[in-house]
Amino acid sequence: VGDVVSTGGNIVTEVWNSTNTGVEIIIPIDNDESLDSGRIQIQARIGGNSYENLGSYQFINANELDGFKTILIADSFVESIEGFSENDMITFNANIFDIPGNMTNGNESLTELFINQSLPIIINSNIESNFSDSSLAGVGNIVSLSFETDTEIQSPSVLISDQTASVINLEGNNWQANYTMQDTDPDGQISFAIDFIDIYGNPNSELNNTSNSTAVIFDNSKPSLS
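Predicted structure:
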């Protein structure tokens, strides 16, 4: 068995995540005419369990001799493997049959898939401005949204007041997004949205809610005398 790659959603090498919809398995085929119209049965196991058939067998076509056959397995079959659980490994193998029915059990794929489907979460977050009262902001004030995730993530995308904010990694799982308020921004509580994906490809988002209930009010209305 050759390479094994998860398909659909956020593809991460050697990982099965919450967005994946299938698996692509590459099988090298000998230049042997008796394999023309033979078949391949993919097998898989979790951890130390025994191998079990994964989906139905696939026929070998003449144009695949002395080449490769690509087999696609749907997520419903993958997630029904006995013992499927978080932080386990999926190992793949195959049985190959020629026309007379002789069978060879292949070598395990060198590629295993690590199961991680847990969504990342934000465990600490705070929003403030650089005005003397950090809960208020006017034009030109910088609004900073800082947050910490429970696991390592890829660089997140952040909107503040519906505008793209600049994002920096402070250290580890701590991030900060900054945005300078403009006179075109709407008055009222400043909205924000955080879209983030962990290193295994699992996505999540957070809207207008901080862990410490902080908020910033933007005021661009000029005062008037009565």
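Summary: Helices lie at 75-78.
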